[in-house]
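Complex record, two chains
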Amino acid sequence: MMFVKEGIIASPGIAIAKAFVYEKSVVEVNLNKVNDAQRELARFHCALKESHEQIENIRLKAISEFGDEEGAIFEAHAMVLEDPEFTDGVEAEINDNHLSADYAVKIVTDRFCGIFDQMDDPYFSARALDIKDVGTRVLQNILGVVQADLSRLDEDVIIIADDLTPSDTAQMDKKRVKGFVTNIGSRTSHTAIIARSLEIPAVLGLYDITKTVKTGDIIVVDGLAGQVTVNPNAEQTENFKIEKKKYQEYRKELEELKDFEAITLDGHKVELVGNIGETNDIDGVIKNGGVGIGLFRTELLYMNSDTMPGEEKQLAAYRSALEAFPNGPVIIRTLDIGGDKKLSYLSMDDEANPFLGLRAIRLCFKEVELFKIQLRAILRASVYGNAHIMFPMISSITEVRQAKAILSECMKELDEANIPYDKKIKIGVMIEIPSAAIAADIIAKEVDFFSIGTNDLCQYTLAVDRMNQDVAYLYDPFNPAILRLVRQVTNVSNNQTNCFTGMCGEMAGDPMAAILLLGLGLDEFSMSAFSIPKIKKIIRSVRYEDAKAIAQTALNLETGEEVTNYILAEMKKLEIDI
Amino acid sequence: MIKKEVTVLNVTGLHARPASMFVQTAGKFKSKIFVIKEGNSINAKSIMGIMAGGIAQGTTIEIQAEGEDETEAVDALIQLINDKFGE
């Protein structure tokens, strides 16, 4: 029977293949008292040894296929397995309470999971998952339960599962797996991350898909529409095949643009660069033809770590970004934490208005030592390429001077230690507070570049919290007030030879905004890697003179809606698809 | 048996990576090793015990060891803490 389900889009693309319903084997433990403790202890130790070998094999496979970070998960698993509290606990249940080895393992695993689950902290919830994963493995080994095997698949399949753990994905046969569909999960869950890294479509969060689909059903995963079609009819299958081909052609067409410049029909060049959060994202930017990094969000280095990342760790991350783009700029934004982003290891007081409070550069001025570690790491990395430093949350020239004074102290320290760095490193600021846009001409005296952060600029200018459903409709980057602020900033940089303006907010990657921003005089567009080819295609199909005229008209319209309607009409006239 | 007091200096405390380092170091010794925090005794070779122990920056703990290499064990663990786990 044919039916369609909707879920969360976690990875784009379209795949058609047979379903493989991957269910965790149900393990039933023996609840009866057992007298032969020696035998139960032997079963337990035998299973421990087996689990050890499995985890080590998976660890090596995970490192070679997905990298060290994925491997570290299994190092943690091994530590849980070796934990004397775990082994002693199980042995005590067997010896003192006469439990079967399987029941003892279950009880002790549940006990530890419970402790960690209770702590209201995502770090500990993740540890509870590790412990559960290890406990299940030991149990399966004791009971000789054979887990469905994803490593030996003899045909192409779509994996249908409740959720996929690192243990599941590490041993999977990647050539045969064409897509993921799960009951639970989100864009940031493990399944989503693995799907994107394998470039296969994934639609997650369908609640009960494992119950409604059977192994062997034909499944279409549409990671563009977020739909899963089960047992499509002949006509639907044909349509999906056409859609799939279209999508592949579209990707191919965009890939072919990779080595072309972002240049208008009348020869005006701009720079298209990528936003990254971690070094894993660098490849995507290169693949999509980005010529550098317009925003390295360094807070992810801090947020993905359980401890304050030291100078050496940061240096290594910045260095790999710089070495990946020998010519292109790599703009490293200093720590932007506070507001809605917190660190588990840095205590921050709750604030009534966190977005108007101690965040980003303001926090760095309070925690100067933390700030200096990062600045030294960036300076030391600067010898490996074309590094730019960018300060976030700047509201006036005073803060720029204060930040530069601290930077000078770091330079002096490096000079004294005879450590080399780029003495002419470019310094810039985020334009995300309206006062900085309005006073861009003053701030320009101290900086080499501006980068407009449209998300916050919009939020602060229009006084709207876009996470609040009741007022989110007011959030509109096409509002003429925002366009005028952008114009005010580009006016300053366009009239100076040694200053440029970029944009690293979501608007920079919006195909609707490309011509407008080009016409407003933006020099650099920084966006998620996958948006780069689309924007490049638009820029290559328009004349700069026309874009300028369009922008000029848009600046004088009355509402955001008028602006978007006008742009749509102009794009249609120019025969440019979005 | 020997025992020594020490105050945890690193920002994270005995959490996450420092916890792993601590447990791995303890595991290299034959002696029985315990961490005493506010009267509670935690097995120093248990990653789950140490992490659940909630030993934050500024906490003073006692490290106890008993066995053939007890002196070396306590010294190694104290040094790890005093070096702030290389943070």
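Note: Chain B has a mean pLDDT of 91.
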